[in-house]
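A protein record pairs a chain with a discrete description of its three-dimensional fold. The following entry can be read in just this way:
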Amino acid sequence: MASTRLGLKLAMALWATTALVAPPALAASPKLDAHAIATARFGNDAPWYEGNIPLFESSDQKLEQIYYYRWSVFRAHQRDLGPRGYITTEFLDDVGWQREPYASLNDATGFHIQEGRWLRDRRYAGDYVDFMYEGGGNDRHFAEAIADATWARFLVDGDQDAATRHLGAMKHIYALWDDHYDFDKKLYWIEPLLDATEYTISSIDASGGKDGFRGGDAFRPSINSYMYANARAISGLAALTGDTATAADYAARADVLKVEVQKSLWSQDFAHFIDRYKVNNAHVKYWDPIRGRELVGYLPWTFGLPDDTPAYAQAWKHAVDPNQLAGPAGLRTVEPSYEHYMRQYRYEGTAPECQWNGPVWPFQTTQVLTGLANLLSDYHQDVVTRADYARLLAQYTQLHFKDGKPDLEEDYDPATGKAIVGLARSHHYNHSGYVDLVISGLVGLRPRADDVLEVNPLAPSDPTDPNFLQYFSLRDAPYHGHLVGISWDADGSRYGRQGLVVTVDGQEVAASPTLKRLTAPLARKAPTPIARPIDLAVNLVRSDYPRGSASAGDDPKTVHQALDGRVWFFPEMANGWSPGADAKQPWFAIDFGKPVSVRSAELSFFADDKTFSGPSRYRLEAWRDGKWVDLAKAPAPLANGVDRTAWAPMTTTKLRAVFDLAPGKDMRLVEMKVF
């Protein structure tokens, strides 16, 4: 216990911000109807969301709509790996550069953990962190800030054991990045493609303007900011365990990076953080700076790296200048003055492929908005305001719509807001964050390591601002073992009381008639244990057990999709097995390859208004004594949700579901899980 107290003291010294005195507890807070909201937003899949996600409403209906849409995207990208737990994917379907057989990629992991930390079911973020450090998920395929995201999760759920048990792996991976470290310059370098940003100024110019997909190794603000953040996280986590030597070592590493980034990657000419070349060839020279501003120059603020000075704050002028990085429809990744701005180099057939030489990327927009939230909350400057944050968030919100419906894709034209890539893989792309920008940015729940609740909304305070919110309310956000609520009502007409009100477990702890920073003492509670039921039917490799088979529509790909641990109901991308509308009592079977004890099943069906419907009914059968015997009759089937059926535990080697189809309709079994 002494080491824990020492660790908390040291971690708080490294991370805590100044707190104000909170008023005494007052009245209970108004409620949002979780069941009604979940049912209206998610239909038959409502049970996953109800009692799990923080509720949110706002006078901006698009903001509210996309908030819930992004939770549906998060849900759709949860892949159940069975004994390995859940991970979060980037693409709904498989891509050639993913880590097999899991379909994982590590470049957007930080976003996924930052979003998932706000769920009351801590399994999704917890399993994913474990996979990154115990399952080899952090394979350094891309530059990353996963240790920092793990720390960020700890700031919300307070689970010290979960956060610190991977310290050994974090330090090991941090040391592996020495292969991208210049010991003379004391900075990290990377090829832009492996920074998840192909076709940047450095890679294009290093090719003489001819290409830029590969090459262009450079000392970049991105990887150096990631490594700075990871060093600070390792320091903070080590401090929690009482390991003062490791805490001091990694704090010193972060300090060195901070000095070198500010000394070498800050351009006085551009008033911006920029790349310097690592590569040396006929086109570019080692250590020369690149010849333009890029959005990546804001990443130091994403992780709180720059000093709080007017000189560095001037960089934010470029983010709001329409002639520089502020496009009409979104933040440009490169300024239009760059010679190769928006030049399309790469195609899949005739369809444009991904590039970072001007298009709007939700990935980097998330990073910049996170940095802007940090700037507005933690720095002293007069360059940008809360109105700028709200405007850029509203602009980002609008990008989520395609033909009037939510469908976030890969990148966008900054002039029109239209998707550029738009390939089959692109629908509901999970390469960015949004929920956290609403919760910790706009609403202002600022996670901390100490026993203080801090709220600092970034919503505009001027009623004439086009993005002014007449009201907003966040409810049941899990924080330090409690449920936090934050409400704003400009005139009292929505919630019966004018002003900003903060509650903990339904009781008021702070209030203000205006939008301002509020704090209150908040003693943390021990996190609740995580339940981890294991799906026995998951198949990641088709040649392995458990194996699927079907009476009709027995295509190996679609049969495998019904056991691959993926559940989504988006109509744009098919997922699952279908027998065909003419099939008579089709069945889908699972061969476990060995006797297993089973007690329940979850079946998920997709339905649309045209071809597919849930079955009219189905029953479950088990293989016993060489024949199929009835096991359980399922309740009336639901479509676009999860049907759960339970029975007395039994041992079997095979299980199957037998279906009666709805008249004239095919069915699609999205996933069959067995526990």
